[in-house]
């Protein structure tokens, strides 16, 4: 993963939260640990778009989080992540722990757990994919 992407995300989080970049550790969850509101994640993504000259879609991030799992494989009838859904997230999040991916976790709670490093890992493929499976988002 390019250090530039991590730095851009750290700076975007710092600007959004009105704090110094040094106060944004890689392993801190932007919402749960740093106190951002979930709407502020949208602002972070907008700032990343502006800094890197790309367009990012929230749906793309959701698709990456869900992996190749169908909706019914990712979320059960109660609206909570299935075992397969939690395993998928554990395979792509940079700091997965049993506590973070507890039974009963709902998909709408996942964004609160994303760290700067998680965001960088999720966004990096969207910034560089040119294999024809999706348009390259780099302008």
From TrEMBL:
Pfam families: PP-binding. It comes from the Bacteria. This is Acyl carrier protein. Residues 7-61 form the Carrier domain. Transmembrane segments: none annotated. It comes from Actinoplanes octamycinicus. Keywords: Phosphopantetheine, Phosphoprotein.
